[in-house]
Amino acid sequence: MNIALENGIIVSDKAKLKVEQLLAEAGRDNDLTWFLRVSVVGGGCSGLSYKLDFDNESRPNDQVFESNGVKVVTDLKSLLYLVNTTLEFSEGLNGKGFYFNNPNANRTCGCGESFSV
């Protein structure tokens, strides 16, 4: 597993709190083997979609980031789309949930769950 230090995935304060809450609800908050896996998959109305999961198994070519106390892992292919992307969390009236502020996306869909480059 490679440790990537620069140009990684950034976790906002609100996203950090939600990640910690979800890990606690799953009983995994004290198990340091669990991390947040972020990936980009084909699909969605703009061509590419974000995928978030909790995982505890490393894979070949994983890139590892530590942001705001959250361990974030992505595969090398997804990283090409996620460089300098910030994971955010909103509880606003326009929708509740995680979303990505991705400077690499040149078009996003209305729901914010898919993008194109």
Automatic annotation (TrEMBL):
Pfam families: Fe-S_biosyn. SUPFAM superfamilies: HesB-like domain (SSF89360). Gene3D superfamilies: HesB-like domain. It comes from the Bacteria. Residues 9-113 form the Core domain. NCBIfam families: iron-sulfur cluster assembly accessory protein (TIGR00049). This is Iron-sulfur cluster assembly accessory protein. It comes from Terrimonas ginsenosidimutans.
